[in-house]
C-alpha cells in the first residue's frame, strides 16, 4: 500500500491517502496484515476476533482486496453489517482510505439505496438482510469471491441465517472464501459450527485468528458502594470527568429514555461559564435514527 500508483484506479495516490495511511498503520488489524493473509490464503473459512476499534471492519476487507484483486476477475468482496448506518458510514470511510470514489470501486447497498456500480464496484458493504435477499435470487452468490460477516457476536437473525446458508454453500463453491468477524472472545461456537461437516466435528479446518493489541488503554474503576440510582451516578461521574480531565469525549451506555432526560439535568448541574458543555454537546447515540452526518465520529470537544 506504500506505493505510488493506486492499483484500483491506475492514478497516483493523493496526499490525503498518504495521511490516512499513516493513521491506519497504528491499527492492530493493519499491523497484523501478514498474519491474517497467511491464514486467509490457506483456509476457506476464517474467524477473526479483535476488540472494537482494532480495525476489523475497515481494514480486513481492504487487505483482502489488495491481496485478491477481485476487480480483475469481475468478482466482488461483500461485507455485511447488522445496521444500515454502519454500512453507509464504513463504506464512505473505506472509499477515502483507498483513495477511490464512493459508489464506484467501493460502495454500499442497503434496502432502497444501492450506491454501487455493477461494472466497477469490487468492495461492497451491505446490511446482512440485503445479502440474505440476494441469496434468495442467487443461492450460489456467484458474484462474490469473499463474503465477510461482520459483528457476528451480535447474533442478528439475518447473520445467523446467513451463517447456515454459507456453511452449505462453501461445499458447493470451493472458490468462495468466508470471513466471520466478532468482537468477543467467545468465537469457539462459530468455529465448532463451521468445522463440523456431516456431523463430523473438525472435518473442515476453521482457524480463529485473534488480532492482538489494545486500541485504547483501558482502566476499570468500581464504586466503593452499590449505587442506588445508576442513571444519576452515570451523570454525576460524567460531570466530574468533564471538570477534572482534559479535552475529550465521554460515552455513556444507558437507556434511551434516561439519556433524553440527561439534557436538562446536565444543563442545570453546570455553571453558566463551564467550559462549553451545553446540551449542544450532548449527543444521544441512537444508531438507527442517526443521519449520515451525525453518525460520523465526533470532532474534538469545542472550547
Ligand atoms: N469514518 C471514520 N472517520 C475517521 N476514522 C474512522 C472512521 N471509521 C473508523 N475510523 C477509525 O478506524 C479505526 C478502526 O475502525 P473499525 O475498522 O471500525 O474497527 P473495528 O471494526 O475493529 O471495531 C477506529 O478506531 C477509528 O479510529
Ligand atoms: Mg467493526
From TrEMBL:
Region (Disordered): 274-303
GO biological process entries: mRNA processing; RNA splicing
InterPro entries: AAA+_ATPase, DEAD/DEAH_box_helicase_dom, DNA/RNA_helicase_DEAH_CS, Helicase_ATP-bd, P-loop_NTPase
GO cellular component: spliceosomal complex
Reaction catalysed by this enzyme: ATP + H2O = ADP + phosphate + H(+)
Alphabetic keyword roster: ATP-binding, Helicase, Hydrolase, mRNA processing, mRNA splicing, Nucleotide-binding
Domain Helicase ATP-binding span(s) in chain numbering: 37-203
The keyword Nucleotide-binding is assigned to this record: yes
Lineage, highest ranks first: Eukaryota, Fungi, Dikarya, Basidiomycota, Agaricomycotina
Molecular function terms, GO-annotated: ATP binding; hydrolase activity; RNA binding; RNA helicase activity
Annotated PROSITE patterns: DEAH_ATP_HELICASE, HELICASE_ATP_BIND_1
E.C. designation(s): 3.6.4.13
Top-level taxon of origin: Eukaryota
Protein name, per record: RNA helicase
